[in-house]
Amino acid sequence: MEFQFHGAAGEVTGSCHQISVNGKKILLDYGLLQGKRKEAFERNRKSHVPVEEIDAIILSHAHIDHSGNLPSLVRAGYEGPIYATSATVSLCEHMLRDSAFIQEKDVEYVNKKRLRKKQKPFEPLYTREDAEQTLALMKRVDYDDDFDLFEGIKVRFEEAGHILGSASVHLTITEKGKEHIVVFTGDVGRRNQPILKDPTPPRKADFLICESTYGNRLHEADEDVQARLLKIVKETDDAQGKLLIPAFSLGRTQRLVYDLHQLFREGKLPPVPIYVDSPLAVNVTEVYRNHPECYDRELEKFNHENDDAFGFYKLNYTESVEESMALNSLKVSCIIIAASGMCEGGRVLHHLKHVAPHPKNTILLVGFMAEHTLGRRIEEEREILKIYGDEYPLRAKVEQIRGLSGHADRDELVAYLGHLKKPPKKTFLIHGEKEAQEAFAQNLFDFGFPKVEIPVRGQKFKVT
Ligand SMILES: [Zn+2]
């Protein structure tokens, strides 16, 4: 059996890992590389593996850095199956269509400039038609159900507690009469979080492919999250400013809405209007409403007592561009939740131009900000932000709530892996930046894991 790591190797986007066994090549995830624009443009266009060699794809969850490059593969001729949980497939219907639309629009914008310079136009990375063909290849699989992928290869999805539909992937592989259990964690969520069930920790793994986003960091204690959120909302309201929260339309937005709804129900929230400014978030939230099989007990109870966990009268979902633009001229204090989460595109950029230069406003970061993203620059509180080629001073207050993260922190990851009956023969750390990975590798080594590898992109490992 051989593993090869094509993406999210020493970085946190562009997830793609390959298992070659029994004459089959299986890919785990096929995500978009985000952040480094020029490099992303080139790397996202290049197939990691010749499409005719890929036998099947298994998708851990619908986040675009895990699913977002699948249509490129289909555009290049991939016609095989893509397995995912039912909620993941439902989410991908919106995520991939939206991503394709962005790809088409981006290239249209670039091509206008290129045409003026008499340069050859670029093709979009993929189109909406490619996204539709990708969706047609997706196969819905239940959680906790072993299915035969190929002879001698069984696959099972288990709850990852990261976003709706997220799963860890468990493969039982029989090779030359010997059985190997391979576990790919996908993105690991956190215990005792609202909305989703807790992640199911793996019990057995001979070979483990493990995420390490927060391998060197700890989140704030759970009980602080709503209190911190409330404090920041109140302070911004007192200053008569705007609170801008960059958040991914999938996952973070629903969590924030639910937290704000709870604060509202308890009568604690100041009477500020709240805007979720993302058409994608509207669609994704609808998928959340349609998949109650993924809810934890707390959300079931909340929904029983209230009509809709993801809606209340102070909350407005804005869809049209006009509605979005109108928020800029709003003179009253308000909360705006807008994508993208790392400020790499989307409506949040337009809001940042208006919000960042004024000290009465606050920008609240609630997720991981990868290297080379505008979000990371805000996190570092750089004096100047570059948005669409223009410079804007960052004078707004920058706040952060790490406890809202959808990723397990270092100790939570160790606790999650602590359920393994015995340490894996080999562990591969993926989906993390170098510092986090090195620190986490040491942690796992101290914890008794005999071999922990940090693969570089393209690296292959033969195992027996
Ligand atoms: Zn994710």
Task: Please explain how this structure is put together.
This protein is α/β, with parallel strands linked by helices. The chain has 2 domains: 2-217 and 406-462, Metallo-beta-lactamase, Chain A (4-Layer Sandwich); 224-404, Rossmann fold. 32% of the residues lie in helices and 22% in strands. It contains 14 helices and 22 strands. The chain has helices at residues 37-45, 64-67, 70-75, 86-116, 128-136, 224-238, 252-265, 279-290, 297-305, 321-326, 348-355, 374-379, 410-417, 434-446, and strands at 2-7, 16-21, 24-28, 56-58, 82-85, 138-141, 147-150, 153-159, 167-175, 178-184, 207-211, 242-246, 274-277, 315-318, 334-338, 362-365, 384-387, 390-393, 397-400, 426-430, 452-453, 460-462. The strands form 4 sheets. A 7-stranded mixed β-sheet has the order 6-5-4-3-2-1-22. Strands 7-8-9-10-11-20-21 form a 7-stranded mixed β-sheet, with helices on one face. A hairpin with a 2-residue loop joins strand 9 and strand 10 (178-184). Helix 4 (86-116) runs antiparallel to helix 5. It starts with a strand and ends with a strand. The mean pLDDT is 94. It binds zinc ion. Zinc ion binds at residues 61, 63, 66, 162, 187.
List keywords for this structure.
alpha/beta; binds zinc ion; Metallo-beta-lactamase, Chain A; 7-stranded mixed sheet; Rossmann fold; 464 residues; 32% helix; 14 helices
Short description:
The protein is of the alpha/beta class and about 475 residues long.
The CATH architecture designation of the largest domain is 4-Layer Sandwich
How much helix is in the residues? Answer: 25-40%
Model regions low in confidence, pLDDT < 50 over at least 5 residues: none
Please compute the radius of gyration using only Cα atoms. Answer: 22 Å
Q: Biggest sheet: strands, sense, closure?
A: 7 strands, mixed
Mean pLDDT: 94
| Unique ligands | zinc ion
CATH class of the largest domain: Alpha Beta
Spatial separation of the terminal alpha carbons: 6 Å
* Number of E-type strands: 22
Domain count: the total is: 2
Strand-residue proportion: 15-25%
CATH homologous superfamily annotation of the largest domain:
Ribonuclease Z/Hydroxyacylglutathione hydrolase-like
> Which strands sit side by side, in order, in the main sheet?
6-5-4-3-2-1-22
Helices, by number, come to: 14
The secondary structure category is alpha/beta
What best-fitting shape do the alpha-carbon axes yield? Answer: globular
* CATH fold-level name of the largest domain: Metallo-beta-lactamase, Chain A
